[in-house]
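Posting this for the archive.
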Amino acid sequence: AAAAEAAAAAAAEAAEAEAEEAAETEAEAAANTGDAESTTFNLEVEATAANVKKLDCEAYDIVKRDSWVKIALGDQEWKSSVEENKLDPVWEQRHIFTVKDVNTEKLELSFFLGEKQLGTTATYNLDGLKKGVNTYKGMAVPGGKVDISLRALNFGKDADAEEEGADDWMSFV
């Protein structure tokens, strides 16, 4: 009897796990297709690198040269790893944000050396992104710049669609 109960419990656990996996797969498929019924979208952001080698650390009262970025979208926030004692860090780290309203939400990027923010926070609109295409953005900071890449996973303009009013510069061929 105990063996039968154990087998029934194991079967119930397996069925529950299978149902959870199916729900996750269905949700992921809806997110990746940009289903019209879906109210949220996914934005992949990659913190690529920075170069502030021309920065006069003494003039900006920089004590720690530990470089990192903070990226925020609405109430979501992500921080890159800290590249210790580097004025030219390479992160190449990705994070996926959930976007509720492509037309109104804005991505914010801040660069830090230690605990001190360098420059102002940059703000990026999302409504002009092309679906599935990396869009590179640079943020000027004292002594250099910070680079990120944005990719709309399931929203944005079709990358294959020709833009309205675009000139065909090879039309004479």
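Helices lie at 2-33. The chain has one helix and eight strands.
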